[in-house]
Design goal:
Order of helices and strands: HHEEHHH
Distance between the termini: 30 Å
Structural class: mainly alpha
Number of domains: 2
Radius of gyration: 21 Å
Largest sheet: 2 strands, antiparallel
Shape: elongated
Helix content: 25-40%
Strand order of the largest sheet: 1-2
Number of helices: 5
Length: 170
């Protein structure tokens, strides 16, 4: 289930969501108290503030898409697999989703990779963060070693290094 959507950089949006969340929480406590045997229910503590799960997403060389995941797409520049999660099958992660479309000398990893919003709910999870972090770190080392930009990394060499480290590429 998707939570409320707002602008994670807009203080007014965040404040409104925070207030709605707290009012809703207290409303749920009151509903519980109305049931027989729950008259003494009380709320001990809540988080000091709401957490933002997703905000802005990278515009990358390759944007990972929902249809690609559902259809088991394969990528020549695969740098790893996700784990299967909920209704989503395991899927390949392309190197292009780590490389910004316009900015040079930057690599993204973890929840920041280029993906459609509906995919980002899966790519933000820890296993994908591990996989993309390992690939981004190796790619950065190759950039230094070969004096090249991330978009010009020799992907075959990167894949070879990932294999050597035990990464599963399919």
């Amino acid at each position: 289930m998707r939570g409320p959507v707002g602008d994670a950089l807009d203080i007014a949006d965040l404040t409104e969501l925070e207030l709605k969340h707290r009012i809703g929480t207290w409303g749920n406590v009151e509903k519980l108290r109305q049931k027989a045997g729950n008259e003494q229910v009380y709320l001990t503590e809540t988080a000091p503030q709401l957490g933002v799960r997703l905000s802005r997403l990278l515009d990358g060389v390759k944007k990972l898409k929902v249809d690609e995941i559902r259809n088991g797409a394969t990528f020549k520049d695969v740098i790893g697999y996700s784990g299967a999660y909920a209704n989503a099958p395991a899927f390949q992660i392309p190197y292009g989703s780590l490389v910004p479309a316009k900015v040079e000398n930057v690599l993204a990893a973890g929840r920041c990779i280029s993906a459609e919003f509906d995919v980002a709910d899966i790519t933000r999870l820890i296993p994908v963060c591990w996989v993309t972090g390992q690939a981004a770190g190796l790619a950065a080392a190759l950039c230094i070693q070969n004096n090249c930009k991330p978009r010009n990394v020799n992907v075959a060499k990167l894949q070879d290094l990932l294999h050597q480290q035990g990464a599963y590429l399919g």
